[in-house]
Recover the amino acids of this structure.
């Protein structure tokens, strides 16, 4: 089944993309990049999955890299939104950290094809676009680092290296996109709960 025939599985993050043809091409590109990798995917592959001609693709996107940039930008905006919402919800640092991990993992598991492309195809971006995305990643890092610092200052966390622990927490969450299988025994929600508990143990959060 092509992306043009079924855009319900991975199209939710692309609701803001218009017109419909541009959205279908993004969904098709995610599907192709996740399956074959960016470099092994051609614009003809993407257009075919979207039920369009290669010429139709260039009406909406000038290059394959522009497609990847759009996917990466929307995905990283969503990641920052998820983490910021958890950080700003109020409550003790442990509660905020657990919710940040829980929601971040749920997104990477529930949208694992999208997440794999967003997180692991950065090197294919142009220098300008990569710099833009790295700035967004630093903002996400800062959100988690802020929660950890709050926990250290309040005495709830025992974290000697806040920066290193931030990297460990985010890496743990992001890696879910590599292995999550919808046919597996755990749901995205269950994986989110598992990882939230693991991270709280990592920072020695007091119950």
């Amino acid at each position: 089944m092509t992306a043009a025939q079924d855009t319900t599985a991975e199209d939710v993050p692309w609701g803001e993309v218009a017109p419909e043809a541009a959205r279908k091409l993004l969904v098709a590109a995610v599907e192709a990049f996740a399956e074959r990798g960016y470099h092994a995917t051609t614009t003809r592959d993407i257009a075919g999955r979207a039920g369009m001609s290669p010429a139709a693709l260039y009406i909406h996107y000038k290059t394959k890299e522009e497609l990847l940039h759009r996917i990466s930008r929307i995905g990283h905006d969503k990641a920052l939104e998820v983490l910021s919402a958890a950080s700003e919800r109020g409550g003790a640092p442990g509660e905020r950290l657990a919710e940040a991990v829980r929601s971040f993992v749920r997104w990477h598991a529930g949208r694992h094809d999208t997440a794999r492309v967003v997180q692991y195809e950065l090197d294919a971006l142009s220098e300008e676009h990569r710099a833009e995305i790295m700035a967004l990643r630093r903002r996400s890092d800062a959100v988690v680092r802020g929660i950890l610092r709050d926990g250290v200052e309040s005495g709830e966390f025992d974290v000697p290296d806040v920066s290193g622990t931030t990297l460990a927490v985010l890496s743990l969450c992001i890696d879910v996109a590599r292995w999550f299988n919808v046919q597996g025994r755990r749901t995205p929600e269950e994986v989110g709960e598992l990882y939230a508990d693991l991270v709280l143990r990592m920072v020695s959060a007091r119950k």
